[in-house]
Model the fold of this input.
Amino acid sequence: MADIFISYSRDDRPRVEPLAEALVSAGYSVWWDRNLATGARFLDTTEAELKAAKAVLVVWTKTSVGSHWVADEASAGRDSGRLVPISLDGTAPPLGFRQFQVTDFSRWKPGDEAMLSELRSALASLITPSGTVTPPAAPTARKPIPRRTLMIGGLAAAGVALIAAVAMFAMGPQTGQTTTSANQRTAFFGFTAGSSDPLVSEIATNATEETFAALGVLQIESAARGDTQGVALTGQLDKAAALGARYALGGDVRASGDEITVNIRLDDVGGRTTLWQETLTGGAAERESLPVLAASRASTILQCLISLRPDMVREDASALALVTRACQFSDTSDRQFVALWRDAEQIAPNSFDIQRRIARGWFNQSLGASDAERPAMLQEARAAAERMLVLKPTSQSARVLLAVSDIASDRPLADFVAVVTAAFQEADASGDRSGMDSIATTRMLAFRMVGRHAEAARLGRSDAAAYPFDATVQSSYGRSLWYAGQKLEARTVLDSGIRKLASVNAWSNRAGMAIADGEDIAPILAAAPPAASVETVACWKDVAGAARATNATARAAGASRLLGCVRAENILPRLAIGTLNLLGQVDAAYTIVGLQLKRSNPQGLLVTGGYMFAPVARPMRADARFLPLMRETGIYQYWLDTRTQPDMCETPEERDFEVCVALRKDQAK
Done:
């Protein structure tokens, strides 16, 4: 049996054959049906090879997206966590597969080792060329489980709905908490079209398909699809009860002029009460993102309730309403986040998931807190992480949170990075996936913090594939790629995050990169997600104009405008660091860095540290203040302790910078 099963359309054989040969030359064993004939399949052989393969390489093209055989084979790869999708002509995958990152092979030609290396990296989490499987995990551990997904707002006060800020649901639901008992079953009735408008019908169909796919990926126990489709709204609760479901989920799509609204509703079947309902709004431009947003929003709220309900000491209407309200709130930097979960703690005092949310909320709030407020927040975060360990002594996410806290007590960064790396490996090997998305993001941030972007990008590839709904993971991976010099793929990842997930984080990163690379920013500004404020779009537009200016006065004015945008909280401080360097305002960049990079601010150091190593931030690294800053933060000591160096010191442009010369000298001692 072969390592790799290639699923493709017969019409694409001329382009698939050299790819298969290249993989064989790289050391993999490959099975692909060279003798595929119209209307005929060697079913027994095909099925056996498909089941035995360690990776299912699906080749999407304008032909293969219409193939039922390819769809079936891709489903087998997706549902078992072995899917590795590529596109030979830029064609997007069909419904049910759009949550997964697709490697663009449209420009690949035989002999192109760079692109083949990207594919090998995508395969690396499943198999090595020698034919040896990578370290084992539980059978379900390879399934992509996007535990942190998108949170979007509902109706505005005036009654006009807009998609609100897209943010990570920092401590999202966990696969390990999914129940298999009948009393947690969900009956999903799909999204109905409120009119015959083709766009309405398209979005309703796509939202239904994406939600079914999300429920499957999250392993939420659901009633059979055939039992729930075509049921009128008035009969859905009765039907859900007859199917033994605890939750009834559904919605509709309507149009009013150019505005499309997607209405979502979740009911408690036993109590005959509505737990949650929300409206998402967009237009034709959001035809691709609205279905994904609806699916991720619905599955996130549902999975949150499923994971918490077994721990609730009471389930009256007010208790369910309180927990549901907490599940809807996404902004971990808002004081209300912790307050809501503290209230939920009274209803489920022994909930591991609630303690995890409280810990993450305090950590994220400490990022922007004053020096006077931060110690108390970090102490609260640490206390919650310690309660996590009491409730689950094997929790690796708790150990990572405690390691972050220890940065403030001058714990060596080499120790911190080792803890995060080991936590990921141990959780992966044990099959305990709780908090794996958070650990994955922290691991990328840790390596970026010490200037090792190539390593962050390498590790982030499998993370991005495992958490396709997670805008934070996708954005972090895209930035890691860009820092590592893989600009084309970085743009692809971030553009996908903007288009499919409506991620403001991805869009803001993309805008900053475009300015640094001298791209035309107009198309990027035009693609701004609805949640991006008019002020933020205007900020990036003005800054892009200043970056193109040739005179110092205009550039200084642009820097002043950028700093004003930071003060007005329209642009995150860390996103301004590289652009300030580009505008020649190194002093201003150091001012921002100085506020964030303190051992007493572990979240600031972790989240912001990598921005100093962006390609565009080279003026900072050439400055005499850089070496003392590296020593003060402990980053320089990390390089000494691990006998590594930042990627920058391996480049001809920077290998003779003061910090690199000093590092080589000290490491030689």
